[in-house]
Amino acid sequence: MVAAANGFVSPEAESIIRDILAQDDQHIPARAYLGSLYHQTDRPDIAFRMWRDIVENGPVGLFHTNLVRDQIEDAAFRAGTPYTLPVLPGPTAEDIANAASLSPQERSAMIAGMVASQANRLATQGGPVEEWARLITAYGVLGETVTAQEIYTEARDVFNASDTALTTLQEAAISAGITP
User: Fold this and answer.
1) pLDDT tier at 168 (50, 70, 90 boundaries)?
2) Which CATH class, in words, describes the domain spanning 11-79?
3) Which fold has domain 93-176?
4) For the whole prediction, is pTM greater than 0.70?
5) Is 111:99 a contact under the CB 8 Å cutoff?
């Protein structure tokens, strides 16, 4: 409903959001959209408080985490609260410099290790669809299309209730060179 209304949180959407939060007060999409409601109704202080935990502790790459990241600094500014958006995790400048000095074989081994680590984490802890999509694409880049197909099949089972997620996975499969 919110997406169809270009981000506007209507009273009907608010009612559904509050019902969801009554069942699960940690539901990230519902918390993100309720924060949007407060941001839209001139209560950026409440939006900021709701969004801060999502930005600082929510899953990296999740659509709703990114949605909040795009708006939280404005909410903090409007609330009169100094706030700097935390840096997303990723390789450090030192990591990149070290990778540049590796031989092609060592670099390939390092990349394969990183991909395997991500695969293990997703298999044991799960993660947002965007991470699964990146994993499928990474296996395609590595030329491991059988593994990419296996991950794609597993991810489709995990996200089968979301047409948006399935579209994201299908795009990753095409990018990886496998038949969706």
Assistant:
1) confident
2) mainly alpha
3) 1.25.40
4) no
5) no
